[in-house]
Amino acid sequence: xxxxxxxxxxxxxxxxxxxxxxxxxxxxxxxxxxxxxxxxxxxxxxxxxxxxxxxxxxxxxxxxxxxxxxxxxxxxxxxxxxxxxxxxxxxxxxxxxxxxxxxxxxxxxxxxxxxxxxxxxxxxxxxxxxxxxxxxxxxxxxxxxxxxxxxxxxxxxxxxxxxxxxxxxxxxxxxxxxxxxxxxxxxxxxxxxxxxxxxxxxxxxxxxxxxxxxx
Length: 215
What we know:
The chain has 215 residues and is an alpha/beta fold. It has 2 domains: 2-130, 3-Layer(aba) Sandwich (Rossmann fold); 142-213, Winged helix-like DNA-binding domain superfamily/Winged helix DNA-binding domain (Arc Repressor Mutant, subunit A, Orthogonal Bundle). Helix content is 52%, strand content 14%. It has helices at residues 10-22, 34-44, 62-73, 88-95, 113-124, 132-140, 153-162, 168-175, 179-192, 200-213; strands spanning 2-6, 26-31, 48-52, 78-83, 102-106, 128-130. Strands 2-1-3-4-5-6 form a 6-stranded parallel sheet, sandwiched between helices. The chain starts with a strand and ends with a helix.
């Protein structure tokens, strides 16, 4: 795996470099700002970028904007965003800009090395990894629309776990139900949200986006 890091906190940045190189990951560049990130992506063409949301100069959403710009310039780039905060703009900008190779973890997860590395590898392999705390906080801000109101409590639970990027088997394990039950719930979610049959991955992301954007 070839990777670049954009993190303005020098201690965390260097800690990530040491951790990832210790895992055999090729860290091509570790930078402290959004402009440097874009230059590093253009120069090195990494497989994945690990990006802090809040970076200089204003420490608001520079990381998100840089990640969106990098993805548009290099659609094959995977992005794992790290943040101390839940940023709604992630769901509406970065996740909407591409249905795969996207992750969003709260920084506290980095201390849980196994969880962080599993998410990193999942995103680099083409999947998604959304922090469950992010999902919970975004869901708490939502306002129900007519279609979302049709979802049962269990269907909402399935959709919440789906938003973390887990597949059907992992959802079944998390919720202590059978694979067949998960398949049925997901089919019902698609039907209630008016998502036509097609590519399952795209429909899964579309369902998550519909849920996150209804705030």
